[in-house]
Amino acid sequence: MVALNTRQRDMLCYLIKTEGSITINELAEQMGLTPRQVNYGLKGVRLWLEQRNIYLFISPGVGIELQCTPATRQELLTALISSEGIDLVLTSGQRRQLIAFTLLTEIQPIHLARLQSENNVSRSTILKDIDDVEGWLQPLSLTIERRPNYGIWVDGAEMQKRQALTILFWGGTPFEDQLWSISHQNGLEFELSSDTQLLPILQEVVNYQERLNLANGLSQVAFAEADMGGRFTDREVLHLALALAVQFERLDRGIALDQRPLDFQAITRLSSGMVWKVSEHLLQNRIPDAVTQDSDVMQWETALVVMRLLAGTKNDRWPGDSETEKEFEHLIAILLKRISEAYEMSALMYDTTLRDGLVTNLIPACLRSIFGLWAPPLKLTNLLDEGKYLFEYELARDVSSMVADRTGVDLPDAEVSHLAMILRAAYIRERPQMLKDVLVVCPSGMATAQLLVARLRVRFNRLGNLKVISVRELHNRKYAHVDLIISTVSIEAETIPADVIQVHPLLLPEDIAAITQWLAL
Fold first, then answer.
1. What Å distances lie between residue 307 and 34, 272, 297, 409, CA to CA?
2. What Cα–Cα distance (Å) separates residue 504 from each residue in 102, 451, 457, 465?
3. 439: helix, strand or coil
4. What are the domain boundaries of the chain?
5. Bridge partners for 66 per DSSP
6. pLDDT digits over 278-318, tens only?
7. Gap between the Cα atoms of 16 and 72, Å rounded
């Protein structure tokens, strides 16, 4: 008898619930697969159905259709739900995530035969998978040790093992077909949780997640926010909750840090701050007696929580941030000076919103690097088109270089992109009072140009210094001090590093709306 794998089962379930025909491309889109994967999977589905005297019709140019009675459809669904005739076939990416999970959560060495049996593959396949898992672990300062007749295990510091588990559950590995996802709505979800009867390792994952208790981690983060008088970003709350849940689960099993996470002087300095007391409170009743009897380990575990709270990305500045900011005060002042000089806006030196933006983004990024902590990478956004806002991106890279020179921290590209948005926002806030030149291009004659300028002054008293120039002058001009070009003729905006708005010489209502919208940006 032909068995279905889980991908084919899910395809068939979708076809059973679909009235009429569906194309290969439509099914691929619904299943998150490629048309080629669907075609390959349908071969097995077709054979499985034919064993039951049911036929799947695949018509080129028309689509796929399952032709059977409603009663037969219900029988098929029942069989699929009960996993009758289902064979779980893991993808290579799924196997590697499960192998990483097993190696990182087990305390004792694991025999190769167990990994083969749990993943239902050959010895050579498992060995290749282990090599790939080790390739992922090595940048985290972890290695996989292999000893004949003894077993396989992950070797490295406990702190790094916890970080690896956090990355794995966050979905941050390079392996395809991520098995875990996390959200505020659904918590930590395991993709194969409904198939635990098909492979023993899947039940082990589900049992582990019950012990992990992400809900408790979320409540601990909420407590820290309340006690410290601020809020982390929504994304950071999930990350911190997951990291704390992993830490607590390890401690519940008596697996404590095996080395100091920071040097003695740094820990001593941190222990005098308010965050240390909050961290001690979070760890209360979470550490077994065997661990609490070791004062050094207690201090290390508390320091790790402190490091995570200090390095967490916040929505805004917190009352207790002054303790951390002192070390970066000179750097922030230098950056504000550089930014104000670049824009030729002295007011930016004293822009509290800009300062807060630098503090709440750059300081945590620096601390994560200094502490050696992993954090979910920011997603690159296209809110600012780099071609259009080249000045902001170049300034953000310059600021990033200054940070690297003074702290040794290289900000990732996503952080630089985020910094460019902070800079643009600061410029927009100051622009109404600090507009430089607005060029008016009107080749129709001096009278028409003066009439347009007069209308612009009446309608927009914030446009600043209006200068009338010719098209010939436009292409020979430097634009460092130009905010906007208003033209009565078409101008190739790609060749001009400034915003261009084309208007009618009489300044029609739609022209006024376009300029008003630009001022509001």
1. 43, 14, 15, 16
2. 69, 11, 15, 20
3. strand
4. 6-81, 92-212, 215-315, 320-432, 435-520
5. 56
6. 999 998 877 777 666 778 888 999 999 999 999 998 887 77
7. 10
**Which CATH architecture is the domain 435-520 placed in?**
3-Layer(aba) Sandwich (3.40)
CATH class of 320-432: mainly alpha
pTM of the model: 0.75
Crossing angle (nearest 10°) for helices 274-283 and 295-311? 120
Burial class (CB in 10 A: 0-12, 13-18, 19+), 387: exposed
A 10 A CB-CB count for 156 gives 17
Phi, psi angles (nearest 5°) of residue 469 = -135, 165
The rounded distance, in Å, linking the Cα atoms of 83 and 30 is 22
DSSP letter at 148? T
Topology agreement, domain 320-432 and domain 435-520: no
Which phi and psi angles does 314 have, rounded to 5°?
A: -110, 160
Residue-by-residue DSSP string for 68-103: --HHHHHHHHHHHHTTTTB-----HHHHHHHHHHHH
What are the angstrom distances between the C-alpha of 158 and each of 18, 276, 286? Answer: 50, 21, 17
**3-state DSSP helix/strand/coil percent for the chain, to nearest 5?**
60, 10, 30
Rounded to 5°, the CA angle 57-58-64 comes to: 85
Q: Does domain 6-81 have CATH number 1.10.10.10?
A: yes
Tally of helices (H runs) and strands (E runs) in the chain: 23, 10
**The two three-digit tokens of residue 157, written as one number:** 């510091």
Render pLDDT for 241-275 as a digit per residue (tens, 0 to 9).
Answer: 999 999 999 999 989 999 999 888 888 888 888 88
Note the pLDDT tens digit of each residue in 44-64: 888 888 888 888 888 877 788
Report DSSP state, residue 294.
-
- Helix, coil or strand: residue 42: helix
Q: What is the CATH number of domain 92-212?
A: 1.10.10.10
Q: 174 — phi, psi (to 5°)?
A: -80, 0
- Please name the residue ranges forming H helices in 82-174: 92-105, 112-119, 123-137, 158-170
**Intra-chain end-to-end CA distance of the chain, in Å:** 65
Pairing of strands 499-502, 482-487: parallel
| Signed CA dihedral, 342, 343, 344, 346: sign only | negative
Q: For residues 72 and 32, is the Cβ–Cβ distance under 8 A?
A: no
Which helix (H) or strand (E) segment holds residue 197: the answer is: none
